[in-house]
Each structure stands twice: as structure tokens, then as C-alpha cells.
Design a protein that fits this description.
By secondary structure, this protein is of the alpha/beta class. The chain is 42% helix and 21% strand. It contains eight helices and twelve strands. Strands 2-1-3-4-5 form a five-stranded parallel β-sheet, with helices on both faces. The protein has a four-stranded antiparallel β-sheet with strand order 6-7-8-9, with helices on one face. The longest helix has 22 residues, at 112-133. The radius of gyration is 22 Å and the shape is elongated. One of its GO terms (cellular component) is cytosol.
Length: 237
Amino acid sequence: MLGYRLAMAKVVIVEDDLTIRTTAIRALTERGHAVASAATAMDGLRTIVAERPDVVLLDLGLPDLDGREMLRMLRAIDTVPIIVITARSDEAEIVRALDAGADDYVIKPFGAAQLDARIRAVLRRTELRAAADSAVVVGELRVDASARQAFLAGAVLDLTPREFELLHYLAVRAGTVVSKRDLLTDVWRLPYAGGDKTVDVHLSWLRRKLGETAQEPRYLHSVRRVGVRLSAPESLG
């Protein structure tokens, strides 16, 4: 399963307002996060390079440089998730910040619980993207997204593009029951309209190539009236 870094994140706050900065530091520290801060864009960039945080909270109204310009500079050197914190609530401003590279935003004034939830949500999305871009290993099954190849006990599986996408989607979510509705929507990119048969047929083909059946599953386990779960055989731990 994906190991979300939800218990603690390393956070850098770039905010010139001392009251807001101090309040945010205290609230996030109380929730278990490690927090560093800066009051200007230039100090913020130096802190981010030095600290290598999991997420950055960036105020747009900084005294030495417009926050969007700092966003662009940071995006040129790092892919760290950035949550914009701003008093500018108009939609056009928010869109410009997102287009400049922000991953999310919160509007001042904000509560500590909302800020913490935004951080956790951004980290979840970041880890899902990382898992989608890297090889996923479940037991003796290895699914490599970059090479678009899957291996079972070291042997290459001869999969169609759709079978690979289906296997990769399930492998990234290993241990989790995935509904057929989600498979049809996310793998086939089709609206759900009772298309269970399409999913069932592809799962059957995939099972055959994994050397198993629905009656004697090893990796693909059907959960009646819910969906399917990919997990390592018990014999492999």
C-alpha cells in the first residue's frame, strides 16, 4: 500500500506577517509537523534549498518579490508541492497562482485544521503521482510504468495496453478494494453505465496471464458486490 507521510511533514512557511507566521508555525508544530519559516522571498528560497521540505506554504504578498514570481523561480528548480496562502480571494488571482505552479491554495483567514488537511491532501496526491511514475512491486509481481512492462517472478508478462493499465492501476492501490465503477471511470475513462462485463472480461484475461483463476486467486481477489483487490499471495508474505 502507499505510505502517505501523513503523521509528519517537513514544512517551510514563507509569510511576511509575523502574527500569521507564528500562529501557523504553532498550529502545525502541535500537529506533529516540523516547521521552518522565512519572512521574505529571498530568505524563503534559501530556506527551501537548505531544508528540502515536503511542502511549502507561500504567501503571495511578500515585501521583496511578488509571490507568483517566487512561485515561478521555485518551480524552475524544484517540484516540491506548494500551497499558496493569500488574502486575494478573486477567482482570476487564484487561477494565475495555480497556472504559475501552485498545487493548492488557502484564503486568509484560515483555520489550523483546514491548513493541516490541505497539507495532507497535497502529500497524498504527490505520493500517488510518485507511485504512478515508478515501478510498483507486489510479491513477485513488478509493474514498471516508465517502461510499460510487467514482470511475474522475473518473467515478462505479455499484456495488451489495456491489461497493463488495469494491472498498474490495481498495483498502485495494492491491498485496497477497487470498485468496478472506478475501474471503468479511471482506466477506461468512460462513464459508468453498468459496464461490469467489460471489466470482468479484462480481469479474466489478466488472471489467465498471472496464472490464476477467480476460483483459485493468487493476486487478483474478487470482493463480492464491491470490486477487486490486488495483493501478494499469503505464501509470499
